User: What shape does this take?
Amino acid sequence: MSVPIESNVAVAETIALPEPRRTGQAALEAVMSARRSVRDFTAGSIALAELGQLLWAAQGMTCADAGRTAPSAGATYPLELYAVAGTVDDLPPGVYRYDSRRHALHGIAAGDRRRALAAAALSQTWVADAALVLVIAAVFKRTTSKYGRRGERYVHIEAGHAGQNVCLQAEALGLGTTVVGAFGDDAVKGVIGADEPGEPLCLLPIGRA
Assistant: This one.
């Protein structure tokens, strides 16, 4: 069943995110041990700084030569990250694309699109219940232009690295998430609303467990 998208009004073009934290109190081993797939969320919001930290964990820059938190074959960086925000403090509901070089969000479309995204994900209700959903998409030609068809495998490997980084960062922040791979590609693209969103590879609904 399709769900109407609530608004097509433009959102703010660029939103700077708080500087990501590069040290934390939780040991990596403890975070890996505690990580579980979470599909039950409270109605609580998450902070803009937490969203920024999650995005940085997935694709943030870590050095001057554009190296990132997740490895990329040939430094081709095919991934694009989209945040479908619902209840994020100091951020209007809408769809945003992550700019890793500026650690900022670029607004794409306004309105709470979580229900529409849940419908695109075969009516998995926890997608709508989460405070926000991260969409990991890929522009395959960035990598296949260098490595040919083998590059498709490299893109999927990179998406796995980025997704696991988000899962571990969520656990370190006291948040819950899971990886969703069952959805209609074209339906997700329609929800994202970007001109060239790439091919969606997975969804990560994130909220307070």
In short: The chain has a mean pLDDT of 93. The chain has one domain: 14-20+45-207. The CA atoms of residues 58 and 84 lie 15 Å apart.
